[in-house]
Amino acid sequence: MNMKSPQYLIILLLMVLSSISFAQRPQEQRYDKEKFEAARVAFITNRLDLKPEQAEKFWPLFNKYNEERESLMRKMSSISKESEGNISENQAKQLIDQRFSVQSDMLKLDQKFMADITKVISHKQAVALGGANRDFIRQIYRMNQRGRGGN
């Protein structure tokens, strides 16, 4: 079997995803980040049909974007936590302003990322990226639910 064939990538993805769900520590329900990322790479590479030369340039951009996005999401979460409880009107106004600032930063990050990756992959592949990433997360979630005895 050709190592670049879609069937190979699907088999690899299924093996990695299976090991993620079985490798969980029973009490903590943690996942192996390396296996998770390897599964994401295989899934998205296959879904977007990335050529090796595209993947080589795409993944560093995607990983940097994800790190920056996660940082902004942590800021947004922190703002939400601050808003819980008894706060003054002035504090509420400041939190709203902070939230809009972070949302603005997220939009700028998304725009820069799209500008950068469309130099590496096609616009069609870039549009498909969001759906592929969501589908990957859904699949992980479903596998995790099945592993816990869910439906």
Automatic annotation (TrEMBL):
The keyword DNA-binding appears for this protein: no
Record flagged with keyword Repeat: no
UniProt name for this protein: LTXXQ motif family protein
InterPro entries, A to Z: LTXXQ
Cellular component aspect of the GO annotation: periplasmic space
Keywords assigned by UniProt, alphabetized: Signal
Signal sequence interval, chain numbering: 1-23
